[in-house]
């Protein structure tokens, strides 16, 4: 029997089958979330090198395009050589990336290791400093000393219970450290493979884009495919602008933190600057995430430096939020402070640290698409697309308008125009004339 694909009933049947299949898949996933999560983790683990390659290529694409333009001006004076320009730009981009990574490791890692070793070697001195600081604080504020003395036994019991519960878990901690070390080695391996994959992605960037566009055009209706590609273009603009701008912004904040801490002669200058710069990639909450462990580190070494450091972080955060960030990023996301905070919380809750970084541009795209859809539906109904037109009018404003309206009405009733006779006067005159006629 020949299937008539253009038949109405065939189309309805196909859509019903697709809907039933999707519903069954969603039902199975909802009833087996742990299994689906395990499968997803395995898929991500297998594809980790490719994911690293895509991320590296995506970050290096602006660098590669800039170098490609420079190469085309140098090599294409008489005849263009696009393939040669792409190869040269890709090689230089990867060399730039490797130099940056190697420089960071060569400069930062030894200093970070020295700082960590200094913490362990001077831990006894730090505890003595902390104890002296606490004693001085208690001598100046006896009320705090009385409260701690009254709670001393309770605090002691709590600490003993915590230590007793911690000792049996040391074996599990050793196992976790071993697993963490193995995971770190695996991540380094995936990263190196990702660097090699990034070279292929950069060389054939347009070819991969064309293949993806071809698949979308083949599988979906033309209107849906065009709209989907438009959304992808919008998402790419939002992601590329936000990620590159945020990396530059975080680098500037880390350098400023290093300079200010060096001038103020703080401890662990490079380590804390790296922490502050790295966590600044997270919008809104980033400076606070970096300030908390850094302040605790300074509390152990020099408690007197904690308050100046917190003030420095507040100044840097204000400088970043009001001057540096807007200059570099502009209004790339188009989100208010509330929606930025919402995107960070949801992204961090779902995907951890990466979710905090990419949650804002992803939510910006979703917010923009939703806004376009709402405007489209309002336009179909003939309603205004301006949000300000739907703002509630304050009650005081309503009462004032009502009072003005009543006052004008009262003025018209009791003080008519001299040229226009009052209706009541005309009625009175007419009544008097009628009474005179009757008489």
Structure, described:
This protein has 17 helices and no strands. The protein is an all-alpha fold and 439 residues long. It has a domain at 395-434. The longest helix has 42 residues, at 222-263. Helix 3 packs parallel to helix 8.
Summary tags:
439 residues; mainly alpha; 84% helix; disordered C terminus
Summarize the structure.
By secondary structure, the protein is mostly helical.
User: Count of helices?
Assistant: 17
Could you tell me how far the N terminus lies from the C terminus, measured between alpha carbons in angstroms?
A: 107 Å
What kind of oligomer do you see?
single chain
Model regions low in confidence, pLDDT < 50 over at least 5 residues? 408-430, 432-439
Query: Mean pLDDT across all residues, rounded?
Result: 75
Succession of helices and strands: HHHHHHHHHHHHHHHHH
Strand content: under 5%
The major sheet is characterized as:
none
Kindly name the structural category.
mainly alpha
Number of strands: 0
Query: Tell me, what's the shape?
Result: globular
Helix % is over 70%
Rg from alpha-carbon coordinates? 35 Å
Present the secondary structure layout:
Blueprint: H1 8-31, H2 33-46, H3 48-75, H4 82-121, H5 123-140, H6 142-150, H7 152-166, H8 170-203, H9 205-219, H10 222-263, H11 269-279, H12 286-301, H13 306-329, H14 337-351, H15 353-380, H16 395-414, H17 423-438
Helix pairs in contact: 3-4, 3-8, 4-8, 5-6, 9-10, 10-11, 10-13, 10-15, 11-12, 12-13, 14-15
């Amino acid at each position: 029997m020949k299937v008539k694909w253009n038949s109405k009933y065939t189309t309805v049947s196909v859509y019903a089958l697709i809907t039933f299949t999707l519903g069954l898949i969603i039902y199975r996933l909802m009833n087996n979330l742990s299994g689906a999560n395990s499968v997803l983790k395995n898929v991500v683990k297998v594809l980790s090198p490719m994911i690293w390659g895509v991320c590296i290529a995506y970050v290096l694409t602006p660098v590669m395009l800039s170098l490609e333009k420079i190469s085309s001006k140098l090599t294409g004076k008489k005849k263009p050589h696009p393939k040669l320009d792409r190869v040269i730009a890709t090689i230089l981009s990867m060399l730039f990336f490797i130099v940056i990574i190697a420089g960071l490791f060569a400069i930062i890692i030894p200093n970070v290791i020295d700082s960590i070793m200094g913490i362990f070697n001077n831990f006894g001195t730090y505890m003595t400093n902390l104890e002296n600081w606490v004693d001085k604080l208690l001598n100046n504020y006896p009320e705090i000393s009385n409260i701690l003395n009254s709670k001393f036994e309770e605090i002691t019991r709590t600490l003993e219970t915590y230590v007793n519960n911690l000792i049996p878990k040391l074996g599990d901690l050793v196992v976790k450290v071993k697993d963490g070390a193995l995971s770190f080695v695996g991540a380094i391996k995936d990263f190196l493979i990702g660097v090699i994959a990034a070279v292929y992605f950069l060389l054939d960037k347009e070819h991969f884009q064309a293949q993806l566009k071809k698949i979308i055009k083949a599988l979906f209706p033309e209107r849906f495919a065009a709209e989907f590609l438009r959304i992808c273009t919008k998402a790419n603009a939002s992601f590329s602008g936000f990620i590159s701008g945020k990396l530059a912004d975080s680098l500037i904040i880390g350098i400023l933190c290093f300079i200010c801490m060096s001038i103020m002669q703080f401890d662990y200058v490079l380590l804390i600057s790296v922490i502050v710069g790295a966590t600044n990639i997270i919008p809104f909450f980033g400076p606070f995430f970096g300030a908390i462990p850094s302040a605790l580190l300074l509390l152990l070494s020099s408690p007197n430096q904690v308050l100046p450091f917190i003030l420095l972080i507040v100044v840097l955060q204000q400088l970043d939020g009001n001057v540096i960030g807007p200059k570099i990023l502009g209004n790339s996301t188009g989100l208010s402070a509330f929606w930025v905070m919402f995107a960070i919380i949801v992204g961090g809750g779902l995907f951890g640290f990466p979710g905090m970084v990419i949650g804002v541009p992803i939510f910006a795209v979703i917010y923009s698409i939703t806004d376009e859809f709402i405007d489209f539906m309002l336009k179909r109904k003939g309603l205004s697309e301006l949000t300000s037109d739907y703002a509630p009018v304050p009650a005081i404003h309503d009462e004032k308008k009502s009072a003005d309206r009543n006052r004008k009405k009262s003025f018209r009733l009791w003080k008519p125009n001299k040229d226009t006779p009052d209706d009541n006067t005309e009625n009175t005159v007419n009544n008097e004339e009628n009474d005179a006629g009757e008489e």
